[in-house]
Design brief:
This protein has 285 residues and is α+β, with helices and mostly antiparallel strands. The chain contains 8 helices and 15 strands. The protein folds into 2 domains: 114 residues, Aminotransferase class 4, branched-chain amino acid transferase, N-terminal domain (D-amino Acid Aminotransferase, Chain A, domain 1, 2-Layer Sandwich), CATH 3.30.470; 161 residues, D-amino Acid Aminotransferase, Chain A, domain 2. The structure holds 3-[O-phosphonopyridoxyl]--amino-benzoic acid. The site of 3-[O-phosphonopyridoxyl]--amino-benzoic acid has 15 residues, from helix 6 and strand 13.
Length: 285
């Protein structure tokens, strides 16, 4: 089915949604994006996603040519134009067309693109039985090189790790930071449960501060589950009672094997299940 795309200031048919070959988003990955979901017509944590998009843009000196209010309305309009109530929304802001040189100051027309589509979910058995993941040799990029907190259009670091996961027949791969500490997966944050306590790497481990991650931390607190940010090593994962990943697409997904080590009893644990249920209740509330 042909989609309707929001392009800069209006909705256009998919065939008319085009960017220039001189756009630095294409030439250099110079731009930022967000991935959001709507549940029963309600966009989950829209403000948090817009704040993160604006923070990413600010970090790369990109001025988004729209107010947050206008962007929020455009998201709603794009969903409506595509008759979607439960869907995946991609917000993209590119640096715009420029010269073949790097200079972002020679780009004058940042492109704002909103795509709303149905979401392709992991198969149900992944949620019931849990994922197997492996550690990628590709390290998460150091924040001194490029902050992982910027959700930029340059995802090659994550894609290199994703390829390693796929080569090992895993849909996700664990990424360590340059110190060998656990950072996150290629498109998901990671949590472990140890002795009833929830642990997840802090932002300075070199992660994207996931919106699902933050929601799960809040849910844990409401549910009386102690949750804290902690530096984790692979040993902490291998010896954990439970492990799960969080992300907009995956929501909360259990992990039952890492690098060939069975986690806990090899099936989704009770705290993972509790938080999964709480998350489902939250997004559908
Ligand atoms: N870490 C990274 C590196 C991410 O890209 C997350 C964590 C989870 O963040 P949220 O805010 O979604 O809880 C992400 C976001 C996809 C897809 O299509 C997913 C992301 C990015 C791009 C595409 O699955 N994940």
């Amino acid at each position: 089915m042909a989609r309707t795309i929001f392009m800069n200031d209006r909705l256009v048919p998919e065939e008319e949604a085009r960017v220039s070959v001189f756009d630095h988003g294409l030439l250099y990955g110079d731009g930022v994006f967000e991935g959001l979901r709507s549940y029963s017509g309600h966009v989950f944590r829209l403000d948090a996603h817009l704040d993160r998009l604006w923070d990413s843009a600010r970090a790369i000196c990109l001025e988004i040519p729209l107010t947050k209010e206008a962007m929020a309305q455009a998201v709603i309009d794009t969903l409506a134009a595509n008759s979607l109530t439960d869907g995946y929304i991609r917000l993209i802001v590119t640096r715009g067309g420029g010269t073949l040189g790097l200079d972002p100051n020679r780009c004058s027309n940042p492109q704002v693109i909103i795509i709303a589509d149905t979401i392709s979910l992991y198969p149900r058995e992944f949620y019931e039985q849990g994922l197997r993941i492996v550690t990628a040799a590709t390290q998460r990029i150091q924040s001194a090189a490029l902050s992982p907190r910027i959700k930029s259009l340059n995802y090659l670091n994550n894609i290199m790790a994703k390829l390693e996961g796929l080569q090992a027949s895993c849909v996700e791969a664990l990424m360590l930071n340059h110190k060998g500490e656990v950072a996150e997966c290629t498109g998901d944050n990671i949590f472990v449960v140890r002795s009833g306590r929830l642990l997840t790497p802090p932002p300075d481990a070199g992660i994207l501060e996931g919106i699902t991650r933050n929601a799960v931390m809040e849910l844990a607190e409401t549910d009386g589950i102690d949750c804290r940010e902690a530096t984790l090593t692979r040993h902490d994962l291998y010896t954990a009672d439970e492990c799960f990943l969080t992300g907009t697409a995956a929501e909360v997904i259990p992990v039952v094997e890492i690098d060939g080590r069975t986690i806990g009893h090899g099936n989704p644990g009770p705290i993972t299940r509790r938080l999964t249920d709480a998350f489902h209740a939250l997004v559908r509330a």
